[in-house]
User: Fold these one by one.
Assistant:
Number 1:
Amino acid sequence: MNEQSPFDSAPDEQLGAALREALPAPFGGAFVNRVQARLRQQRPRSWDEELAGWFWQGLLASSLVAVMAGWGLKAFGRSDEVETAASASVASQLLDGATPGANVLLASMSSADTP
Amino acid sequence: MTGVDEAELASRAGRGDADAFGELVEKHQAMARRVAYAILEDREDADDAAQEGFLSAWRAIARYDPSKAFRPWLMQIVVNAARDLRRRRRVRAADPLDSVSAASRDNPAREAGDIDLGERLRAALATLPERQRLAVVLFDAEGYAQAEIAALLGIPEGTVKSDVFHGRRALRRVLSTVKEEWDE
């Protein structure tokens, strides 16, 4: 330790040890645990964790698709039925040799307009 | 742990290995907290800054060049985190750190009284400008080369030498005073 040599390039061991003692860094284990807990929060998620994170959104979306598909099929099936029924009524009345009534003709025309 | 081990750990951490980075945290936590304390002069603030420094380093680890030393790279981030925290503290509060340090600056010896060497050294450190504190802590306590400190603090090497000299002078005075008291 020599105050007269200002530019000595060697660390002062005695002062260094005293400083390390004086500057507090206690409970190293607790500090490391704290940092590691924060690191886990920031860690990029693996593919299975990523999938698990999307589970509820995926379930909701697939349920909506299923409901809409069901509704669509049902609506399509019903218009098909009406058209078939109307055609069958006109055809059966013509085959019977009877003149179809106005209600039967209107029903068959309206079902023909339906896309 | 050798430099090669450290480079290997940093390289694994760069590929997303959190356990490897955890080992680096364990190895450098004491140094990071001491350096942050030299800037902030408060243990809890120093721990917050050191933690923020480690988290920033984790976020930036992919950009770390393994051909260079890891320790100065990490310490640069910790120093920045500590300075950033100090700035935010100053904005948020009416600078409690300065009020704590002011008493020490007035008369560190009288404030120290009969208290132990550690407290006297901390009081003496508080009388130094931040750059001198950092220079002497990094050089004497943490074993950084003067060139490394110059790069880390963004100042010329000659300034580091001068800061270390002036910082040491104040601290050695405390050491010798305490030694004299112990000898009596």
Number 2:
Amino acid sequence: MRIKEDAMTMRLVLIAAVALLTSAPAVAADDALTIGFTVSRTGKLNNDSTAQMRGFELWRDELNNREGGIQAGGKRYKVNFVSYDDESANARVQQLYTRIINQDKAQFLFSPYSSGLVATAAIVSEQYGRIMLTTGAAEEKTYKLGNKNLFQVYSSADLYLAGAIQALKELNPGAQIAFVYKDDPFSKAVLQSARKQAEQAGLNTVLDEAYSPETTDFGPIINKVISAKADVLLGGGHYPDGATLARQLYDHKAGLRWVTLLVAPDSPNFATLGEAAIGVSVPSQWEPQVSFKPDFGPTAAEFTQRFQAKYGIEPGYHAAGGYTAGLILQHAIEQAGSLDQAKVAGVLNNMDVTTMFGRTKFSTNPKEHGLQTGHEMVLAQWQKKNGNVVKEVIWPKSAKSSDMLY
Amino acid sequence: MAGIIASIIDGVLVGAVYGLAAMGLTLIWGVMNVINLTHGAMIVLGMFALYFLTTGLGLPPYGAVPVTIGLGFVFGVLVYWIAVHRVIGRTHLMSLLSTFAMNMVLIGLGTALFSTSPYNVPVPLSGVTWKGYTFTGTHIMAAVLALVIAGLLYLLLYRTRIGKAIRAVADNRDAAELNGIPTTQVLSFAFGLGVALAGVSGTLIATLFPFTVLSGGAYELKSFIVTVLGGLGNPAGALMGGVALGLIEGVTTPFMPVSWVPIIEFVLFVFVLILFPRGIFAFARS
């Protein structure tokens, strides 16, 4: 009898000890928050998509390591990512986002890179009612299809060339403009607005052509530009075609006084074009030299330094956009005090903040929900300084780091 | 008017390079009845060869051309023994699958090593300017070299013993074997040659435009069109087919929105397939 009683006591003590040890103190248990997205690890969008992913990862690592996670409603959540390779293909985006939501049970989503892929991801995310922060996606049409849970970090496509056109109006109101751009959703959306803006600014359009994404030789098009006696060229598309067009314009001595191309000249790799890069300008969502005063999160300079320390290269706007998506989501969850989709969406809808990326405010008009209305684009141009080819911010005047070359 | 002439000349210059790119494809196809789907990847390897030879070893850009031919040949022979040897004489599907798989491997490796960022090799060569239109020095040089290499290939095929052996094997492998020609070695030589041609065309293309790991695809497509235009197994036909394609691109561009040009190209392609199934130039030579 004695022994049995002792055994019982031992067991009770053991159970009590285990219960004490596993009971959670107020904010100690590390719950996890899962954010899902796809990255183009292969395929033609690989370059920019990787930059965007690095932005996400830097945010996550700093959040988990420095702050221990997102604090919401008395609990602390470490952020975990679940991500897959979408191969730069729409079909994969559709499959993978469905998987991310249903099997991996991600609570929040980031978008893939590029307007085309984001349009597909948005269909899936809206179907399941999950909040998605979109970055790397400027085409506005995605937000005009009646969504409830999309939130766009970038400025939309129709603003891309607005800065360049305004700058041109000042520099040379009589400029003859050639629009030469890639035949894809993003570039066409940008150029549609640019055309109207040029008209409103009273500038002359002498050529307006879309080239196939498969174009390898821009010689014939450049000859057309020369025939049309243009002095300005606005357009381009994404990386490979933009870089090729820039180089060939230089080789063919097209005699242009101003060239603005989309996306391509923003990459540090563009400097490898050497002389061909000088004078080419690019509309940018963000540059390391911008001087916005953030309400929370690092300044542009701090972000640039941390990114450079981790990855060895300067961040471009793709990386900055990724990082900002994380910041915005974090802020929204903290303000909402919970992970509940409706509450977080509510905070996002009312948000009007400034981060290192600039001002962020989402449209709540049901016809274009989530469209970014607060952010402004900057114009950067490659110039020669002290024998080096570097990128400077030339517009708007309030944010510039150097004068324009015309 | 000047614009049209300029476009035509530009088209012919670029077309010569398209022709060179297609020569490798048509040679392999004609000699051993294998459709080499690694063709695009070989072009890309030639592009990267230029990049590494010039930036890594400091070779002058055109000095890399003979090096690429040599390296391409060796690599081609290797690929022959790995992926092609066992599928010769089997159904077309097998050789397609085999070379397709090899292609995926090469592109995958390339993406892993170099990502898909653009690489550029600046080649400072002044061009010729006429009435405001410039014909870049690089284009002219590339076209000249393409013609030279085509000429050398012709000499090889028609004036040397190995060339004769290649043509014999292309004609009738069994008869050639019976005549004492080591057909397997000849086939591996021919494959190496085809890859060398693809590689050197990539090197020349890289002197003209920036490139990425994925750039080969567009040229592979053009090579197929050119091969059909010029007739299978006919390198001279390939050169002429390439120039014809370049000419079509140059002539049509001034007159219509640029996005229509690929449509015209492909319509013509279908046209030629129907009317001249053996190729326009094969028809002329029959």
